Amino acid sequence: MPRRPHFALSAVALLSLALAIGCTSETGGVGSIEGTVIDADDQPIAGMRVAIASGTVGFPEQLAVTNDTGYYLLGSIPAGTFEVAVHDEQGEQLALGSATVAAGKAAKLDFTVAVAESGPSGRGLTEEQFAALLKIQDVKAVLVAEVELHAVLRDMKAMAEATDPAQVAAVDSFYSMTFEVDDGSRGLTFSVIDYKTPESANDDYVSALAETPGMIDLTPPVGETAAIAEINTHGIGSVIMFTKGDKLVQLHTIGEDPFVDAEGLKTLAREVADRL
């Protein structure tokens, strides 16, 4: 029987991916796009997916999800003009707008959309369920430095399926959230991979431990099995991985001067485990 495809679910691979698309080094010349999404009655809509669809220059792939006030923020965007799309949780495009970004400035782009009632969710965590596991106020409660943060949510399974669906054949859902400073130089990335079986989650957890130097058992454990490493090199701070049922959870800090220390990361991991 062929070996089940392994979708780079080790800490090393996932952290590399997060570094590539989650946090940008402080190079200057970037701005942001922000705004609100409301309905026809001027009521804010939470859970809308906002992303850049095209631009006059290259742009980072990122997805912002509106909060309870309908607010979204796309950070670390190079100067240029961009088309920004709003999608619902099922991926249907509801609106398209244009914004021009200047270096060091925030371009304002608001949307008014018509939202239909959504049908029942499929298997795996939904974006809304994932986003509820760890919120920005949870991260702020364990900060060791005063920083302003925004959150960027990414559907990692959808991104993988666009290139090679076989990579995520054993996965029901895979979301990642990065809490980062505006210039992208420091951040905390949180991800949950929801597998079809607990065995698949445990297999990739074991593989991740073998591929990540410095991982040691976390005592007392978070979830069912847990490990931690304080890497503190190459832009990575502390890393925690744990399993709970058919889910593999990872949290790690990014940047030379992490705004959450290892003890804070343990606190966040336990909060996530309690909410799963």
How is the topology of this model organized?
Blueprint: H1 11-21, E1 30-38, E2 49-55, E3 63-65, E4 71-78, E5 80-87, E6 93-101, E7 106-108, E8 111-112, H2 127-133, H3 136-140, E9 150-155, H4 156-161, E10 171-180, E11 187-195, H5 198-211, E12 216-217, E13 225-233, E14 236-244, E15 247-254, H6 262-275
Parallel strand pairs: 1-7, 1-8
Antiparallel strand pairs: 1-4, 2-3, 2-5, 5-6, 9-10, 10-11, 11-15, 12-13, 13-14, 14-15
Report on the structure:
The chain has helices at 11-21, 127-133, 136-140, 156-161, 198-211, 262-275; strands at residues 30-38, 49-55, 63-65, 71-78, 80-87, 93-101, 106-108, 111-112, 150-155, 171-180, 187-195, 216-217, 225-233, 236-244, 247-254. With 276 residues, it is α+β, with helices and mostly antiparallel strands. It has a 7-stranded antiparallel beta sheet, with helices on both faces. Strands 1, 4, 7 and 8 form a 4-stranded mixed beta sheet that branches. Strands 3-2-5-6 form a 4-stranded antiparallel beta sheet, with no helix packed on it. A hairpin with a 6-residue loop joins strand 10 (171-180) and strand 11 (187-195).
